[in-house]
Amino acid sequence: MTAELLNGRELSDELKEEMKHEVEILKQQNIHPHLTVILVGDNPASKSYVKGKEKACDFTGISSNLIELPESVSEQELLQVIEGQNNDKDVHGILVQLPLPDHIDEQKVIHAISPLKDVDGFHPVNIGKLVNGEETFLPCTPYGILTMLESKNIEIEGKRAVIIGRSNIVGKPMGLLLLERNATVTYCHSRTQNLRELALEADILVVAMGREHAVDGSYVKEGAVVIDVGINRMDNGKLTGDVEFESAKEKASYITPVPRGVGPMTITMLLKNTIKAAKGLSEK
Ligand SMILES: NC(=O)C1=CN([C@@H]2O[C@H](COP(=O)(O)OP(=O)(O)OC[C@H]3O[C@@H](n4cnc5c(N)ncnc54)[C@H](OP(=O)(O)O)[C@@H]3O)[C@@H](O)[C@H]2O)C=CC1
Ligand SMILES: Nc1nc(=O)c2c([nH]1)NC[C@@H]1CN(c3ccc(C(=O)N[C@@H](CCC(=O)O)C(=O)O)cc3)C=[N+]21
């Protein structure tokens, strides 16, 4: 079998076109969706991601502002900046770009963002709602993956989903979302034994390890759906995923490329969450 491509870039472009119209209509009702992005330090990867997000906001008519703080900013100062944005009624969404410098407690910062403006879906209140199956802002990467699966009518109910990676921003919420949709979910991580054996049981295999080409075709069951979340910069400067694409695509029914797979969908779902925040809504 040669897999069909799950083209995140293409789907993102379609969704952004729809959102552009939605934003126009909101503006006629005097609702002007606004996202604040806070960037600490000058990590090049973070800067490039933030640029992509700004561009996407511009395209859809969502206004955005970037607050750049020096690497040396104190935790207290950062918390004060967040408080200012929480209290600004014209700001609907707040994103603090991760990772943060070591002297700043990431969890403390996430706690400080108003759950109503938490368009990343990282606040413990929103994660708790996700666990309970209540309405909330869905974390953008898992939400984007779900949207890609739905766009191809890929069945989730009753399927075996194996997630490699258990981070708070990708792996954990991905498993919760699939569980909510009645998949049978297995989490794998660095202490997992027999990773390949477990991966081979997956109908839906989500790889979010941050390890270049750690998974190849020998981990993929014939006909499985392979989602590659990894973003790794190779020595030649190009981006590549956690999955060795050429061998995996020979086994899979669907596969996401890197770049132009999950990455663009993450940004698009951020815009979606910002529009929802502006409308005073969140989604289950
Ligand atoms: N496309 C997108 O939109 C996004 C892409 N990313 C990318 O996705 C990747 C993962 O990101 P993130 O979740 O934040 O990463 P983390 O580094 O936080 O988590 C990596 C996970 O992979 C597990 N892992 C590492 N090595 C192995 C191994 N050899 N075998 C099994 N499991 C392993 C770790 O296990 P343990 O918990 O035991 O340490 C951990 O749970 C990165 O490349 C990142 O850049 C991230 C966010 C969005
Ligand atoms: N608070 C917070 N929220 C995040 O959502 C968040 C974060 N911090 N920190 C870092 C990770 C990483 N992440 C990516 C988003 C888009 C692409 C993306 O658009 N990638 C393009 C390539 C872009 C390029 O060429 O540089 C693609 O895959 O096609 C990548 C990575 C969001 N993250």
From TrEMBL:
<dbReference type="GO" id="GO:0004488">
    <property type="term" value="F:methylenetetrahydrofolate dehydrogenase (NADP+) activity"/>
</dbReference>
<keyword id="KW-0486">Methionine biosynthesis</keyword>
<dbReference type="InterPro" id="IPR036291">
    <property type="entry name" value="NAD(P)-bd_dom_sf"/>
</dbReference>
<dbReference type="GO" id="GO:0035999">
    <property type="term" value="P:tetrahydrofolate interconversion"/>
</dbReference>
<dbReference type="GO" id="GO:0004477">
    <property type="term" value="F:methenyltetrahydrofolate cyclohydrolase activity"/>
</dbReference>
<feature type="binding site">
    <location>
        <begin position="165"/>
        <end position="167"/>
    </location>
    <ligand>
        <name>NADP(+)</name>
    </ligand>
</feature>
<comment type="function">
    <text>Catalyzes the oxidation of 5,10-methylenetetrahydrofolate to 5,10-methenyltetrahydrofolate and then the hydrolysis of 5,10-methenyltetrahydrofolate to 10-formyltetrahydrofolate.</text>
</comment>
<keyword id="KW-0028">Amino-acid biosynthesis</keyword>
<keyword id="KW-0658">Purine biosynthesis</keyword>
<dbReference type="Pfam" id="PF00763">
    <property type="entry name" value="THF_DHG_CYH"/>
</dbReference>
<keyword id="KW-0511">Multifunctional enzyme</keyword>
<feature type="binding site">
    <location>
        <position position="231"/>
    </location>
    <ligand>
        <name>NADP(+)</name>
    </ligand>
</feature>
<feature type="domain" description="Tetrahydrofolate dehydrogenase/cyclohydrolase catalytic">
    <location>
        <begin position="6"/>
        <end position="120"/>
    </location>
</feature>
<dbReference type="GO" id="GO:0009086">
    <property type="term" value="P:methionine biosynthetic process"/>
</dbReference>
<dbReference type="InterPro" id="IPR020631">
    <property type="entry name" value="THF_DH/CycHdrlase_NAD-bd_dom"/>
</dbReference>
<keyword id="KW-0560">Oxidoreductase</keyword>
<dbReference type="InterPro" id="IPR020630">
    <property type="entry name" value="THF_DH/CycHdrlase_cat_dom"/>
</dbReference>
<keyword id="KW-0521">NADP</keyword>
<dbReference type="GO" id="GO:0006164">
    <property type="term" value="P:purine nucleotide biosynthetic process"/>
</dbReference>
<dbReference type="InterPro" id="IPR046346">
    <property type="entry name" value="Aminoacid_DH-like_N_sf"/>
</dbReference>
<keyword id="KW-0368">Histidine biosynthesis</keyword>
<keyword id="KW-0378">Hydrolase</keyword>
<keyword id="KW-0554">One-carbon metabolism</keyword>
<feature type="domain" description="Tetrahydrofolate dehydrogenase/cyclohydrolase NAD(P)-binding">
    <location>
        <begin position="139"/>
        <end position="279"/>
    </location>
</feature>
<comment type="similarity">
    <text>Belongs to the tetrahydrofolate dehydrogenase/cyclohydrolase family.</text>
</comment>
<dbReference type="GO" id="GO:0000105">
    <property type="term" value="P:L-histidine biosynthetic process"/>
</dbReference>
<dbReference type="GO" id="GO:0005829">
    <property type="term" value="C:cytosol"/>
</dbReference>
<comment type="subunit">
    <text>Homodimer.</text>
</comment>
<comment type="pathway">
    <text>One-carbon metabolism; tetrahydrofolate interconversion.</text>
</comment>
<protein>
    <recommendedName>
        <fullName>Bifunctional protein FolD</fullName>
        <ecNumber>1.5.1.5</ecNumber>
        <ecNumber>3.5.4.9</ecNumber>
    </recommendedName>
</protein>
<dbReference type="Pfam" id="PF02882">
    <property type="entry name" value="THF_DHG_CYH_C"/>
</dbReference>
<dbReference type="InterPro" id="IPR000672">
    <property type="entry name" value="THF_DH/CycHdrlase"/>
</dbReference>
